[in-house]
Amino acid sequence: MREIVIVPTEELAYPSDRCCACEVAPDMLQDVPRVSGRKDRVMIACLSLDVPLIVDPAAFYKAERIHILKDDTEDSPIYEEFYDETIKQLREKLPNIRIVDHELDTSDYRKVLRELLTIVRVDEDDFTDIYVNISSGTPEYSAAAMLLCMQYSVLTAFTVKPKEKALNEADIRRHFYRDGKPVGAVLTTEEPVKVVTFDPEKQDMELITAMAVIGEFSLEKSYVTYEDIIDGLAEKGIWRYMPKPGRKKTEDLQKKRMYFRRNFIAPMVEKGWLTEDPFVKKRFKVTDKGQAVIDVYHGLNERN
User: Fold this and answer.
1) Which of 97, 102, 194, 256 is the most exposed place for a label (fewest CB within 10 A)?
2) How far apart (Å, rounded) are the C-alpha atoms in residues 61 and 78?
3) Helix (H, G, I), strand (E, B), or coil: what is residue 66?
4) 112 with 104: CB under 8 angstroms?
5) What are phi and psi of 270, to 5 degrees?
6) Nearest 10 degrees: CA dihedral of 249, 254, 259, 261?
7) Share of the chain residues as helix, strand and coil, in percent rounded to the nearest 5
8) pTM of the model
């Protein structure tokens, strides 16, 4: 991870090799048309090999629209057969349902959370009930979906308990045992990937935008001035400071810098998104948590 030094313009004449970057995540927001009129019932689920876990609750809630997250890394024809059967049963039980597919790596927590955010931001309004199926799909989906339900009061999370299972004891021993020992459906694994957790409250989108602005400048230069970033924030419409009439220019400049540090840099450090070098002032590093917040949340507001 690169670093950045934020300095007053007058200090820019003294170069250094210290610098920082935030990678700006691409905008993944999909344009999903809405149905106007009475309150809609929307369900969100993740495709799995358990068809009833998606179909039965959709029928129970009488969903008019369902968003299905589908793994784009799985190319097995069996996976497609389960998808086709899920769609077939949904249309049989709910002939007028509109099905919206979202193809992505459903084992990537950050990608799943971002995709869920795009869905909610499109469908969230006073005329929609959104039900989130926590029991369907991958563990990464379930974790991301539960976090989202904690952040958005308009979402209703629900679980589905199996009533009858397809495999009996003999089937389990035949399919999930190797050399007489219980193994399960997974034989080997890749290395663990640390999941960066977020606070349950909604994220400050202006703060995330400010981090992205810093990142954009850092791709072009090792040093960036307060004024560069402030101008960038103004272009994004998130700079609120207004100078008082009659104040000297130098005094006002200091006030602007203090406002920037107090309202942007300090909260980033407090949230753990940035760390400041304890030995070198104005030298900052973007933490894994800060980068994860940008990857997941940046750009979601731009097309609301």
Assistant:
1) 194
2) 28
3) strand
4) yes
5) -65, -35
6) 150
7) 40, 15, 45
8) 0.74
Question: Phi and psi for 245 in degrees, rounded to 5?
Answer: -60, 140
The class of domain 40-166 in CATH terms is alpha beta
Q: Which residue's structure tokens are 């309202």?
A: 263
Q: Looking at residue 56, what DSSP letter applies?
A: H
Using CA atoms, how far apart are residues 269 and 273, in angstroms rounded to an integer? 6
In tens digits, what is the pLDDT along the chain, a chain of 304 residues?
556 666 665 555 444 333 333 333 333 334 444 445 567 899 999 998 899 999 999 999 999 999 999 999 877 888 999 999 999 999 999 999 999 999 999 999 999 999 999 999 888 776 789 999 999 999 999 999 999 998 888 899 999 998 888 878 888 888 888 888 888 877 787 888 887 777 777 788 889 899 888 777 766 666 777 888 888 899 988 898 887 776 666 677 888 889 999 999 999 999 888 888 787 777 777 788 888 888 888 877 654 4
> Counting Cβ atoms within 10 Å, is residue 66 exposed (0-12), middle (13-18) or buried (19+)?
buried
User: What does R_g of the chain's alpha carbons equal in angstroms?
Assistant: 24
Closest CA relative to residue 211, chosen from 200, 224, 193, 202: 224
CA–CA dist 30, 115 (Å, integer): 9
Which amino acid, 72? D
Query: Using an 8 Å Cβ cutoff, are 233 and 213 in contact?
Result: yes
- Residue 87 amino acid letter: I
Would the CA dihedral through 124, 127, 132, 137 be positive or negative? Answer: negative
Report angle CA 299, 303, 304 to the nearest 5 degrees: 110
Q: What is the DSSP string of 14-27?
A: S--S--B--PPPPP
